[in-house]
Design a protein that fits this description.
One of its GO terms (molecular function) is oxidoreductase activity. Its cofactor is FMN. This protein has 380 residues and is an alpha/beta fold. It has a single domain, classed as TIM Barrel, CATH 3.20.20.70. 41% of the residues lie in helices and 11% in strands. An 8-stranded parallel beta sheet has the order 3-10-9-8-7-6-5-4. A two-stranded antiparallel sheet has the order 1-2. The chain is globular and about 65 Å long. It binds ligand FNR. The site of ligand FNR has 24 residues, from helix 2 and strand 10. Ligand FNR binds next to helix 2 and strand 10.
Length: 380
Amino acid sequence: KDPASSQEGPLPLSLCMNLDDIEMSACRIMSRRAVTFITSAADSLASLTQNRKDWSKLTFRPRVLRDVTRADMTCHVLGKKSRLPFFIAPMGMAKIANDEGELALVRGAVANDIPYCVSGYSSIRHADLIACQKEVGGGGILWYQLYVSKSGCETTRQMVRSARDLGYEALFITVDVPVVGKREEDERYKAELDYAAGHFSQSSSGEGAPVLRGMHSYTLSWSDLSYIREEWGPSSGPVVLKGIQSAEDAKMAADLGFDGIYLSNHGGRQLDYAPSSMKTLLEIRRFCPEILDKVQVFVDGGVRRGTDIVKALCLGATAVGVGRPFNYGIALNGVEGCNKVVQLLSDEIQTTMRLLGATELGQLGPEMVNSTILENRLPQ
Ligand code: FNR
């Protein structure tokens, strides 16, 4: 009998061959609450599904007969050197996946010398995360992700100040959550708990009217960003806008002097039918390609393969964010699970580079992907 498929429990990490194995295995052991929170996405899951599909639409144009003994994956990101061209995307409440929560992700980021963008909704105190980074040798790169609170500008200023004083190296402002998307699995779970407890609330999503879900500022506008930047200070490190989903907003961010734009539809958790980051990147290449020389570009959503990461780099991304797989990794085995996700992706990137005929990331360009798609944009 097949030893792996006959198991009911989690696969040992050594039998996980890719990120899908890690997800499948983690979902066997996580609580329903954790699975629901991590996997859930908005409405009909159209963006969630499309995120993965869009990566698969792009094909490669490899070059052969090149010496590919070397395959250097070093990447320069926001003024720092990262060993690999991907990073851990911000995800709140990592303790839901593993008791060590964000500490496991900090340890993994340091061990692998990659950036980790820590969520403003970390389940571990930020001071403890920075202390942990130092304890384990100080490598890695920690960025802070900010949600602008609806409690007002002073609360936001305080969060920014404290992130800056702790020594986070960059500020990522998430701009795609004026309200929280309608994540039906989350709502079903809460409603079932309420129902079982005999509470029949009108709004299963907590305080306020259901259409204004969440704790974020729904008045946040371009002009508010200046007080946030001012509080962070000009010499505290780069500032990036996370959640850009159109060429117009990308251009606006570049014109306003932001250091980076992070193309993302929040892993399909916010606006359903929002474009994948790859679609937005293609839109930028078509309508305002000049901004690719002005700002660094981050993308995420549905990235599950080294080939996805290489495709993004060919299209002009600086680095690629990976979200849920890191939660699944730590759910399976804390920092070891995080390391396994990094190792699988890095092996896949290296093999992809060699098969494409590239020995360093600077050699990846649009000529290495199928030009029909570049010209016509993605098939619908
Ligand atoms: C997120 N995401 C997110 N984004 C953010 O800016 N701040 C946050 O606190 C969170 N929290 C969060 C929790 C969980 C459980 C998930 C799955 C996602 C979005 C995240 O940064 C990223 O954009 C997506 O997760 C990328 O998609 P994949 O890789 O999960 O498909």
